[in-house]
């Protein structure tokens, strides 16, 4: 079983591994410099005491949840809650920065009613290319954060915290406005109905999230946001759930060999199907079938 490492800053071991207290309150660095040190790939990891904000302006970037990658539409704001598994692949012309802030410090900066919006179990991605005044303001504030950290003028830490607070509040407000409008909710419902039809038609083909987003005329980030708002899961999670539902049904209600079931679900490698099924259910396919043999038709 692969172990996901925990860091303060990626790739750096802390001096006191036993302490859960953060070693610093605020850190900002260039994505280009950090990713170049690691061959342009930040492997899946998590942070025990820190919340991260990435402002990725240009180049190409892929986000990983530890199982799969999907490409991000740039420019964007990426928010990584404490303890959330995440990784990235960047092109060698990437531009942007990552700000790491102690979660305890962030909690003192934001109003109590806003914290739940940032305490989700998954990485949140906010596209900044939709032309909205709110997102244009956020983009400008994030650029100012990077400039302030680089210059280190008197009072820079306080100003960065103020800019960060304002940018997060604007982002949360904009997201709320986008989902609250009745006409937007109706449009999103139609999109989700269409997504369900597409998934039913193509889930055995193991298409990437980008395929479904293109079919709906959306970015992967926007599509994931709509689904998260409605069902609290990502498209990747939806596709995995659909495959598992079908696999469970075949294991219980048919006598087909595991290899045949795997092939029917688009897995050419039975061993990979077995690992996927065990990761999702905690049991290997054979064990799941035995456990549910009393439900099998006589």
From TrEMBL:
<keyword id="KW-0805">Transcription regulation</keyword>
<protein>
    <submittedName>
        <fullName>Helix-turn-helix domain-containing protein</fullName>
    </submittedName>
</protein>
<dbReference type="Pfam" id="PF12833">
    <property type="entry name" value="HTH_18"/>
</dbReference>
<dbReference type="InterPro" id="IPR020449">
    <property type="entry name" value="Tscrpt_reg_AraC-type_HTH"/>
</dbReference>
<dbReference type="Pfam" id="PF02311">
    <property type="entry name" value="AraC_binding"/>
</dbReference>
<dbReference type="InterPro" id="IPR047264">
    <property type="entry name" value="Cupin_HpaA-like_N"/>
</dbReference>
<dbReference type="InterPro" id="IPR018060">
    <property type="entry name" value="HTH_AraC"/>
</dbReference>
<keyword id="KW-0804">Transcription</keyword>
<dbReference type="InterPro" id="IPR014710">
    <property type="entry name" value="RmlC-like_jellyroll"/>
</dbReference>
<feature type="domain" description="HTH araC/xylS-type">
    <location>
        <begin position="193"/>
        <end position="291"/>
    </location>
</feature>
<dbReference type="InterPro" id="IPR011051">
    <property type="entry name" value="RmlC_Cupin_sf"/>
</dbReference>
<keyword id="KW-0010">Activator</keyword>
<dbReference type="InterPro" id="IPR003313">
    <property type="entry name" value="AraC-bd"/>
</dbReference>
<dbReference type="GO" id="GO:0043565">
    <property type="term" value="F:sequence-specific DNA binding"/>
</dbReference>
<dbReference type="InterPro" id="IPR009057">
    <property type="entry name" value="Homeodomain-like_sf"/>
</dbReference>
<keyword id="KW-0238">DNA-binding</keyword>
<dbReference type="GO" id="GO:0003700">
    <property type="term" value="F:DNA-binding transcription factor activity"/>
</dbReference>
